């Protein structure tokens, strides 16, 4: 099967039905031991330093790994993707466009996916057959999420890792499925780990994945990873078809649609606070203004750039935030005991 690179999550059911192996370029970039080489490739080719690191990483990962075809999302993801794919075209990379319609109307989403199917010459029956298979694996990712926030048996990093990997199923559906099954089986016999502070992580998946281990040093844990969970399509099994599934996908649409799901998860997971991660030079950072106003929960905004680990200043800010949440918990407990 031919490899095809992805700049973000797209209807991979179409690509698999067409005989491609999807490869999420974000994942190749961020898990690399020498991730800076991808950034260097981009900057040597003229990408400015004042540009989102993810865009440069995707570009470098595409060229370095000899990916000859990609799907570029022109609407509903990074605003710099359009410029990125123009440069990739000039390098001889074949680019297939896809857009999540800003209108967020069902008929517009249906039309966009139909055009995508026409490009790859597949029909809805083939796509739905693949969707059924993928949703079996996504069901395992949903189990891992439940083992995190309901039973405290999966930590925040593992929750992040297995859900974010659903963007391309690690380019091996059967192998990824077996890995998820092993994780679920292994934790069946482990004792739950309880932390006082239950955190939500919202925003794009982090460059600084050490954030998960860091918060655990302060009696806290992440029990919700917003965008990673959306990559795993947690409500996909309830969708009537692929059109409805991608209509219900919160990541590419306006922030108010995201907020509806965020409010549900804050209540269901009994979150004490939220850390909102944004990437330097990304327009999504502005959404923090709306999120902070609309979500009735303590929230800390942190920003990442080129480093793949937390810097000292960010660590101090997170530590102070967690101290505040612990103080709030003690205050609420004392107030209840005096009633």
From TrEMBL:
Keywords: Iron, Iron-sulfur, Metal-binding. The keyword Iron applies. Its cofactor is [4Fe-4S] cluster. Gene3D superfamilies: 3.40.50.11890, 3.40.50.11900. One of its GO terms (molecular function) is hydro-lyase activity. Signal peptide: none annotated. PANTHER family: 2-HYDROXYACYL-COA DEHYDRATASE (PTHR30548:SF3), 2-HYDROXYGLUTARYL-COA DEHYDRATASE, D-COMPONENT-RELATED (PTHR30548). Belongs to the FldB/FldC dehydratase alpha/beta subunit family. This is 2-hydroxyglutaryl-CoA dehydratase D-component. It comes from Clostridium carboxidivorans P7.
